[in-house]
Amino acid sequence: MSRLPVIAVTVGEPAGIGPDICLRLLDRVRQAPFAARIVVLADRFLLAERAALLGLPVSLRDWEASQPPRADTLDVLHLPLAVRASAGRLNAANAPQVLAMLDRALAGCRSGEFAAMVTAPVHKGVINDAGMQFTGHTEYLAEQTGTPRVVMMLAGGGLRVALVTTHVPLKQVPAAVTPAALEETLRILHREMGRKYGISRPRILVAGLNPHAGEGGYLGREEIDVIVPVLERLRAEEGMNLLGPLPADTMFSRSVLARGDCVLAMYHDQGLPVLKYASFGHGINVTLGLPIIRTSVDHGTALDLAGSGQADPGSLFVAIEQAIEMACR
């Protein structure tokens, strides 16, 4: 038991499907146990109420590291909500507790109590409504750890897609794709592909920013002025295996993807629609560059499905499996 890594799973937005899919962890454990101990960070009474609503016979137990895991029991690190949560109904009063769950999981990862953290979805809007600026897990964890740059990468459907910019309005993307941002992203991606996936010299497919990768400057000069110089310098100085800049409308073809281990897109909706089409419900989000291991589901809070029994826990299961593999590596 002592050799098993401990994976912390945060329940996310209490009104969303996070509680639903966390409760389904016991279904997975009964079929095929994880090679780790799982502890869910949540309000224990929220989980009990949601289990009753879903008709799930779930046994909950307060987390203690000294207790052996049980296949019929979900270990819970109890973090009480400010007010009772109802499925599908957001309440800004609980936003501080949602962030407190992240802080507790992060502290446990940094102290060695947990080997990794896996996050269920949060609702950015309600956190901001509560008066706390929040653009996403990725940015929040970077800020809390003092990490100057992290890289969001989604994986699933046979694809790994990383991003230079994340939750940035489209009109701000060109200015955000600077030589420094691109170089730092490529360095992190190159390094983390080795650390987290065991690929020591990854082949990285790099997208252009503009249609047809700028068409030689006729459709934009970012490729000429920014992307190409950075790629050439990193190839020459670091020996990185970089292919691009590639037109985004053809880089996801089978023949091009076969030449790479991962894709680097310039912005959120350039790369992620393809990945989510290929893997939705079973893809995951990985934050590269943090001093800890963090994976996540690739979907949102799905308020309309909360408490209905229709939420698919597949992405959570994959996120935990990947976190375990990374922790063991």
TrEMBL record:
Binding of a divalent metal cation, residues: 167, 212, 268
Domain of life: Bacteria
Enzyme class, broadest EC rank: oxidoreductase
Residues that bind substrate: 137-138, 276, 285, 294
InterPro entries reported for this sequence: PdxA (IPR037510), PdxA_fam (IPR005255)
Keyword Ion transport: no
Cofactor: how and how many bound: Binds 1 divalent metal cation per subunit. Can use ions such as Zn(2+), Mg(2+) or Co(2+).
SUPFAM superfamilies recorded: Isocitrate/Isopropylmalate dehydrogenase-like
Main location per the UniProt record: cytoplasm
Gene Ontology CC: one annotated term: cytoplasm
Pfam families reported for this sequence: PdxA (PF04166)
UniProt pathway: Cofactor biosynthesis; pyridoxine 5'-phosphate biosynthesis; pyridoxine 5'-phosphate from D-erythrose 4-phosphate: step 4/5
Extra facts: The active site is located at the dimer interface.
Functional summary from the UniProt entry: Catalyzes the NAD(P)-dependent oxidation of 4-(phosphooxy)-L-threonine (HTP) into 2-amino-3-oxo-4-(phosphooxy)butyric acid which spontaneously decarboxylates to form 3-amino-2-oxopropyl phosphate (AHAP).
UniProt-recorded name of the protein: 4-hydroxythreonine-4-phosphate dehydrogenase
Organism encoding this protein: Candidatus Accumulibacter adjunctus
UniProt gene name: pdxA1
